[in-house]
Amino acid sequence: MSEGEIPSLPQEIMEDILSRLPAKYIAQFRCVSNPWRTLLSDPQFINTHLINRHTKENLILISPNQSLYTITNLAVSRKLSFKPELSDTWTEVVGSCNGLVLLVNEEEDKFLVNPTTLKQVKIRDSPLALNKRKSAWMHGFGYDVSSDDYKIVTLSYYDPEDVNQPDTFVDVYSVKRGVWRRLEPSPYSHTFPDLSPGAFVNGSIHWLATTSKSSYTSVIVAFDLVDEKFKEIPAPGCLDETVFVFNKLVTFGGRLCLIDDTQDNVRFDVWIMEEYGVKNSWVKFSVVLNSDWERVKLLCFIGDDEVLLYIDEERLVVYNLKGGTSRDLIVDGVPALFIEGGAYMESLVSTGFGDCIGVQHFGWKWRMMKM
């Protein structure tokens, strides 16, 4: 090696180093050369990067005017610009998986976005979908490890005159293939809960439901994305089986979580399943409401033991479940009002699979935050 020459690293060592860098740097390094672009865009490298990067979850928040903000490490935020069709109506954060976020608006239009790579796609409607004006819909999003495919699951129902007719239809969309399929109707009744999105944990999407139209026993049902079948998951034993269906299921640090807000006006309980499928592994934490909090909405979870609360439609508060302490989250230069929220992780996973309606890039602006 001549004097002043920079030694080159073996290819496998270089790939290992790159696979451990933040996703935003990988996007920049794709511009170095064509070989680097090819390497850093390869699905195998993207999967390796996803495995090697153990980052904290970031926040994604939607303001009343449908502006979308992402918050990284509770320190820096970005404002993302959507296509007009995404910002026309109220938008819900259905869920996230491996860096992809599913958003659904009031018209039941579905958008798959990656806030890290600043790309989004609109998912085509199912040709078998029920009339949007005459039915109710619930959605879930997750990853099928057996087929290396992301799936959107839609439960839609109407009230048939014949009570023996199935009233909850199950449609599954394969992101990889771009195809909707209609499965057997759900054996459970999904008409009692509000239209909460499903919680993706352990390869399944979870909803609250009842066992039948006659008994109305509350259950937690899991839709397995591999065999595409429903099964029951044990709920906390002390909950009233006639009413806990009116609560909410969410994902908390990769674990199944049940929000019980039926107790009183001074607290709500957060049940976390520490060991999936084990009934006695449910652990309860209580969020004690301050006396000056009139309206409280839990937006999302942060890390291992904190939740983000939206207080009186004007404040963001980080609440520590274990310590019972709270602190305001103030964003410089952006509105204080938010109506929806969720968590996601940085990744390079592509939204551009299957039969989607175009791939779009976000615009963005950086914002700094104060705690």
TrEMBL record:
<dbReference type="InterPro" id="IPR001810">
    <property type="entry name" value="F-box_dom"/>
</dbReference>
<dbReference type="InterPro" id="IPR036047">
    <property type="entry name" value="F-box-like_dom_sf"/>
</dbReference>
<feature type="domain" description="F-box">
    <location>
        <begin position="3"/>
        <end position="49"/>
    </location>
</feature>
<dbReference type="InterPro" id="IPR017451">
    <property type="entry name" value="F-box-assoc_interact_dom"/>
</dbReference>
<dbReference type="Pfam" id="PF08268">
    <property type="entry name" value="FBA_3"/>
</dbReference>
<protein>
    <submittedName>
        <fullName>F-box/kelch-repeat protein</fullName>
    </submittedName>
</protein>
<dbReference type="InterPro" id="IPR050796">
    <property type="entry name" value="SCF_F-box_component"/>
</dbReference>
<dbReference type="InterPro" id="IPR013187">
    <property type="entry name" value="F-box-assoc_dom_typ3"/>
</dbReference>
<dbReference type="Pfam" id="PF00646">
    <property type="entry name" value="F-box"/>
</dbReference>
